[in-house]
Amino acid sequence: MRWEIKILEEQPRILIIAKDNLLFVNLLKKKLEDLGGKVFLSQSPNLLVKKFDYIFFINSSFSKEEEIPKKNVFFIFFNQRPPKLTKDKKIVQLLGNKIDEKTIEQILWFFFSKTSQKFLLLNLPKIPKKKITLPKSWSPFSFSFSFLNKKNIFIIVLLFFFLFHFLFLPPLFLSGYFFYQTGNYLKKEEIKEAKNSFTAAKNYFFLAKKLYFLSRPVYLLFSIASLPDDLISIGEKLVVIGDNGFSAYDNGKNLLVFLFKKNKTEEEKKLFALRLKNLSSQLKTINENLSLLIQKLSQLNLLKEKKTIFSSFNQSLTKFIKFYPYLEKIIENKNNQKFLILFANNMELRPGGGFIGSLGILQIKDYTFEGIEIYDVYDIDGQLTIHVDPPEPIKKYLNLNHWFLRDSNFSPDFWDNYQKVKFFLEKSVGWQDFSGAILITTTAIQKILEAFPPIYLVDLKEKITKDNFYLKTQFYVEKNFFPGSIQKKSFLSSIVRGLILNIENASLKNLLLNLPQLFEEKQIVFAFEEEDYQKIIEELGWGGRLAKPVCFSSFDNCIVNFLFPYEANLGANKANFFINRHYSLKILIDSSGKITNYFTILFKNEAKDDIFPGSNYRNFFQLLLPKTVSIKEIKKDGILIEDFSLEDKEEFKKIGIFLEIPQKKTVVLEIVYKNEKPITENFSVLQLIIQKQIGALNSNLTLKLSLPKNISIINQNFFPLVKNQEIIYNNYFSTDKIFFIQLKKVYD
Q: Looking at residue 537, what is its pLDDT?
C-alpha cells in the first residue's frame, strides 16, 4: 500500500510540544520540514498556540479542556493511555519503541486524511536491551579470593591508613571556606547570612577536630603535628570569637536601643545591668582570643591583610575594654549627670578643634539617656556681662577686643579649653556642675552619619547624608546667619533627634569602625571631672591633652625632639575645607653628633572661587618645640621672615607666625632649629614626638634622617626606607606619633 501526502502551497507554522522521545521528535520534524512546513519545538503547552496552523502533542496535553484549540491539534502517546481531555481529537497510540520513517508517514497520513476515524493504534517492535555476559568460570567468590593476595591486602591497608589520617582535611578546608564567607557577609552587614555561614563553619570544624585527634598520635610520632595543631588552634579561636562576637552584637544592639527608653522598671534596669556585665565579659573573651589568633597568624605568616585588620581592631578593642568599667559607672549612676557637648566646626579651625558654633547639654541618669538640648553659642555670648581680654592673635587679626565662649577654643589642650568654657558659661548663663565635656567636630558628625540611613528633616524637607551634611550645614547654619536667629539651633536639634530616632537602624559595624578612628584622630575628645575617668581617658590618648617633651627611654643619653604644629583660622570663613598640608621633617646629624632640624610645612589652598565657603586662608600658625632648642631661621617661600613671635612657656618654646594663603596658591614655611644635646660615643636614643592638632584633617608626613659615616642606627620602632646614610619614612599624619631611634657613635 502506498501513502500519498499532499504538500501545501503556503508554508504552514507547525508546533511540536514534547519533553522526551527526542528520536521520534527529530524524525517527525524532519519529515514535516521536507513537506514544506516551518516547525517549532517547545516543552510547554502554554505557548501562544493561536499563532500556529498545526500542533502536535507528544505524551503531553492541555491542563483544561477549554484551552484546547478547535482544529488541527493532534496527540501522540508512547506506551501510555490517552487522557480524557483529548476526546474528539485525532489520537495515535504507539506501543513499542522501534520507530522508522514508514511509521512517521503512517501517522501523518492518519492526521491529515479526511477519515472520520479518531484513534489509531500502532504496535511497534521493541528494541531488546543488551545483556552483559560473564565468563562461565566467573563467580564473586573466585574473584575475591584471587584478588586478596598479600600484595593487594598490603596496598589496601596502606591506602586505608593514609585516608584515615588525612580524613580531617576536607571538613577543615570546608570550615575555612565558611569562616571566610562569614567575614564577607559581615562586611556587607548581612547578619542572618553571616550567622548561618558561621554555624556551617563551626559544624565542619568540630568534625575536623574530632577526626584529627583520632590520628594525632601518628602525627606526633613522626613530629609533623605542629602545622595541623596550629590550624586547629586557629579554628578554635575563630569559633570562640564568632560565638562571642554574634552574642555581643545582639547584646550591644539591645543596649543601644534600650538606653533611650524612658521610665524603665526596676526589672528592666536589672536586665540592662546584666546585659552590660555580659557585654564586658564577651568583649574580653573576644579580645583575648583575637590576640592569640594574631600571634598564630604571625607565626604561620598567613592572611597578612586580614592580620592587619585584626591587629587594628584588637588595639581599639583593648582601649575600649580599659574604659568600659568607667562607662558602666556613668550609665548606672543614679544621680543626674550633665555633659557639655561642644560642636566645633573644624572647617574654621582653631587650636582646640574649631570654632564653637553650638553646644548641647546631654543628661544621663540611672541607665537612661534623658535627652540632649542644643543651644546657639550667640544666645549664650549675648548674656555675658563682664569683659574678658582675648588672646593677642584674636585681638590683632580678628579685630575683637572682647573674648567670648565661641572663640574660647584657643589652646591646643582640651582640658584648658574645657575650663574656659565652664568659666564663660558660669559668667553668662550661670550654668555649673558639669560631669564633663565632649568635643565633636564637623568631620566626626559626618563620619557618624555613615552608620545611619538618610536623616529626613521634616521642617526643612531635606534628607541629610554623610555626603551632603557639610554643605547643608553651611547653608542652614552659617550662610545668612545673624545673632538671635534660631535656624542653627533648629538644624542641629533636628539632626540629633534624627540620629536618636534612627538608632535601631544604625550600622553597628560602621559605628565600631568609625568611632575608634575618630577618637584616635582627635575628631572626638573627652574631659571628665571625675579624676579616675580623666586619668584613663588621658592614658588612652582620647583627652586631647598636650604631651610633655620628656624622654620615655631608660637610656641616659636621650635626646627629645618634640613638634606640635597647630593653626587658627582667623579669616571668619570656612577656608579649611580647601586646605591641604604636607609636613616634612629632615633631621641632619653631623660627624660631631650635633643635630639640626629642618621642619617644612606646605599649605595649599584649593578654593577655586571667592564664593562661600571658599576664601583666602588667614592662618595664625603656631609651633611648640622643646624649650632647649635654638631657632636658627624661619623662611616663607624661601625668603627669611622676621615678623614672628617667640616665647618660652613652661617646657616649650612657642613660635607664632601669621600666614595668608590666597586661593589657588601654595605657601611653604620652613623652620630651622638645633638641639642642644649631641650624640655621644655611647648609645643614644633620639625620641621624636609629633602631636596632631584636635580637629585637623589628616595630612602627609615625611621623616628623613641623614647620618654621617661615624654614626649608625642600632634600632628603631618603625620601618623606614634606607638609602646610603639616609632613612626615609612616609606616612599619614593622622594621630600623635612617637619615634624611637637608637644611635651609636663609632670611631675608626
A: 96
Number of Cβ atoms within 10 Å of the Cβ of 509: 15
Least Cα distance to 189 among 515, 506, 503 occurs for 506
Q: Which of 129-143, 327-341, 489-503, 587-601 has the lowest mean pLDDT?
A: 129-143
Nearest to 541 by CA among 259, 318, 303, 226: 318
User: What is the DSSP annotation of 291-356?
Assistant: HHHHHHHHHHT--HHHHHHHHHHHHHHHHHHHHHHHHHHHHH-SS-EEEEEEEEETTS--TTSSEE
What would the pLDDT profile of 688-705 be if each residue is shown by its tens digit? 999 999 999 999 999 999
Place of cell 631657632: 631
Residue 224 to residues 175, 207, 229, 601: CA-CA distances in angstroms? 22, 21, 9, 56
How far is C-alpha 561 from the chain's CA centre? 36
3-class secondary structure, 210? helix
DSSP for residue 477: I
* Residue 381, C-beta contacts closer than 8 angstroms, at least 6 positions apart: 404, 405, 406, 424, 428
The SS3 assignment for 191 reads helix
Q: In this predicted structure, what is the pLDDT of residue 527?
A: 97
**CATH number listed for the domain at residues 13-123:** 3.40.50.2300
- Helix H segments across 130-190? 140-147, 150-165, 169-187
Domain 558-745 annotated CATH 3.30.870: no
C-alpha cell at 655: 613660635
Cα radius of gyration rounded to whole Å, the chain: 41
Instruction: List CB contacts of 37: < 8 A, sequence separation 6 or more.
Output: 8, 11, 12, 13, 14, 54
C-alpha grid cell, residue 697 = 584633617
Q: Answer whether 576's CB lies under 8 Å from 346's CB.
A: yes
Whether pLDDT at 98 is above 90? no
SS3 636: strand
Of 738, 735, 743, the closest CA to residue 718 belongs to: 738
How many whole angstroms separate alpha carbon 526 and alpha carbon 423?
Answer: 18
Which range, of 289-298, 341-350, 497-506, 555-564, averages the lowest pLDDT?
Answer: 497-506
* Per-range mean pLDDT, top range of 7-16, 133-142, 157-166, 456-465: 456-465
* Whether 533 contacts 436, CB under 8 Å: yes
Task: Please list, in sequence order, all residues whose beta carbon lies within 8 angstroms of the beta carbon of residue 444, skipping any fewer than 6 positions away.
Answer: 518, 523, 524
Determine the average pLDDT of the residues in 281-305. 85
Task: Tell me the pTM.
Answer: 0.76
Three-state SS for 376-433 is EHHHHHCCCCCCCCCCHHHHHHCCCCCCCHHHCCCCCCHHHHHHHHHHHHHHHCCCCC
How much is the pLDDT for 277?
Answer: 94
User: By the 8 A CB rule, do 594 and 678 touch?
Assistant: yes
Q: Characterize 401-429 residue by residue with b for buried, 16 or more Cβ atoms within 10 angstroms of its Cβ, and e for exposed.
A: eebbbbbbbbbbbbbbbbebbbebbeebb
d(CA 16, CA 42): 6
Which pLDDT tens digit goes with each residue over 605-628? 998 876 666 689 999 999 999 999
Q: How far is CA 283 from CA 56, 100, 276, 322, 332, in A?
A: 70, 77, 11, 11, 19
3-state helix, strand, coil in the chain (%, to 5): 40, 25, 35
Over 90: is that where the pLDDT of 413 sits?
yes
The cell numbers describing 358, all together, are: 553650638
